[in-house]
Write a structure and sequence with these properties.
Layout lengths: L6 E4 L4 H12 L5 E4 L4 H10 L8 E3 L5 E3 L3 H7 L10 E7 L3 H12 L4 E4 L6 H4 L3 E2 L9 E2 H14 L3 E3 L4 E7 L2 E6 L4 E9 L3 E3 L15 E2 L2 H4 L7 E5 L3 H10 L5 E5 L9 H8 L4 E4 L2 E9 L2 E9 L5 E5 L2 E4 L3 E3 L48 E3 L11 H20 L2
Parallel strand pairs: 1-2, 5-6, 5-12, 6-9, 12-23, 14-21, 15-16, 15-21, 16-17
Antiparallel strand pairs: 1-3, 3-4, 7-8, 10-11, 11-12, 13-22, 18-19, 19-20
Helix pairs in contact: 4-6, 4-10, 8-9
Bound molecules: flavin-adenine dinucleotide.
């Protein structure tokens, strides 16, 4: 469908309108938004459709059919998303359809390992939401994140992977020799092995304009997007190790790096602090918070800053902003399971589970396979994994490595 084919009529204050817009956005489905508080024709249209009532959201589709206050499940059904698996049991269930999950899936399906992938949003994960991937081997001119994700999806489908969408995984369980997955529509699916590939998400500031300029001036990865800013001025938000280290990396491209730190000091190692503070291309502003991102022609141009000590306000002209205030793994659904996580919630795998010669419980007769978790038969790959490098290529590489380990594991059960 194209943007002209779906129109969402709603209002800025309406929580169900926000939920529907978020659902469409997460599934990368374009739509036109009409705020009926500002558009009298739009308001009239909604009242006509709803027999005199002003009910929102009212969502109109290309065939002129419409849904009023739909649930996410109703929207998914209308959009033809596959939300139910064809069977209850598989050789392998992959949790998450980003680069790690889909790469693993195409490897396992090619080897006739019966594979189901469960995804809650758009296939391609964080990569699907990336304007341009400039560091993908084999793409000399870069590739749009959405195109890369569509290709990955098509490739896994070609090998017969079954893909479910709009299904939030809420928990995992173990029964006899099987592992199982629960989804938010109440379904349970079991498998001989699981792969956790649910990725992570960069923390955001949550201030106006931030999401409007994602990929168009607002970034979370200096390795990925720093080279776009050769000779330009960028800001870095954050005061920890990532912010300071990434600022040093950015000086290789940008002519000027301004670090905006909310507190009056860095929380980075002394060596890095020293390097940053003495660097001729770096300025540091202490006690400084971004309270708005603004721009022109869909591109970020300015940051509105607030000094939280003096209350002073300032506008900083800027070409790009990099936010490094932390990364959260998508592992909430593992709560209560016996999967070992590190102190930040990332999944621990392979040799990191061994303490000297001591193996974890359940591994009396063998060491864990590469990328296997603390529960035999459950593997993890990509950004969700402890010590992963948070890059598309490495997530895909871990997906293939996990697939090979899973193949070996399945021979034994
Ligand atoms: C803005 C941005 C720009 C980036 N630019 C680049 C770049 O230029 N180059 C580069 O190499 N890397 C880039 N990255 C990083 C890269 O996208 C990630 O490293 C990569 O996507 C990780 O892949 P993954 O499969 O491990 O996880 P993800 O891509 O995070 O995929 C995980 C999937 O699991 C799903 N999921 C999570 N929880 C659940 C659940 N409970 N139920 C069902 N599904 C679930 C998510 O919806 C998601 O689709 C960028 C990241 C961002 C955010």
């Amino acid at each position: 469908m194209t943007s002209s084919e779906i129109t969402v009529y709603g209002a800025h204050w309406c929580p169900d309108c926000r939920r529907s817009k978020q659902f469409l956005g997460e599934h990368q489905i374009p739509y036109r938004w009409i705020d009926i508080e500002e558009d009298l024709e739009g308001e009239k249209f909604v009242i006509e459709k709803n027999e005199g009532k002003r009910i929102i959201p009212t969502i109109v589709f290309s065939d002129e059919s419409f849904l009023v206050e739909p649930t996410n499940a109703e929207l998914a059904q209308k959009l033809g998303l596959k939300t139910k698996a064809s069977r209850n049991h598989y050789d392998l269930i992959i949790l998450g359809g980003g680069p790690a999950g889909l790469t693993a899936a195409l490897y396992t399906a090619r080897e006739a390992i019966d594979t189901l992938v469960i995804e809650r949003a758009a296939f391609g994960g964080q990569a699907a939401g990336t304007e341009k991937l400039d560091n993908m081997p084999g793409f000399p001119d870069g590739v749009a994140g959405i195109e890369f994700s569509q290709r990955l999806r098509q490739q896994s489908e070609r090998f017969g992977v079954e893909l479910l969408q709009a299904q939030d995984i809420t928990g995992i369980y173990h029964r006899d020799n099987y592992h199982g997955v629960k989804t938010d529509d109440g379904s349970n699916y079991s498998a001989r092995a699981l792969l956790i590939a649910t990725g992570s998400r960069y923390r955001r500031l949550g201030v106006p304009g931030e999401s409007d300029y994602l990929g168009a001036g607002v970034h979370f990865c200096a390795t990925c997007d720093g080279p776009f800013y050769k000779g330009k001025a960028v800001a870095v938000v954050g005061g920890g190790n990532s912010a300071t280290e990434e600022s040093l990396l950015l000086t290789k491209f940008a002519s000027r790096v301004t670090i905006l730190v909310r507190s009056a000091n860095f929380k980075a190692s002394a060596v890095i602090q020293e390097k940053v503070l003495s660097h001729p291309q770096i300025d540091v502003r202490w006690n400084t918070e971004v309270h708005e991102f603004t721009g022109k022609d869909s591109k970020l141009t300015e940051l509105k800053l607030l000094n939280n000590r003096t209350g002073g306000k300032e506008t900083l002209p800027i070409d790009g902003a990099f936010i490094f205030i932390g990364l959260d793994p998508n592992t909430g659904f593992l709560e209560g399971s016996r999967i070992l996580l590190d102190r930040w919630g990332f999944v621990t795998t392979g040799h990191a589970l061994l303490h000297g010669d001591k193996r974890p419980a359940g591994f009396e007769n063998r060491d864990p396979y590469l990328l296997e978790t603390s529960i035999p038969g459950i593997f993890a790959a990509g950004d969700v994994r402890d010590s992963s490098t948070k890059q598309v290529v490495s997530a895909a590489g871990e997906g293939s490595t996990a697939a090979l380990s899973i193949r070996e594991y399945l021979k034994s059960v």
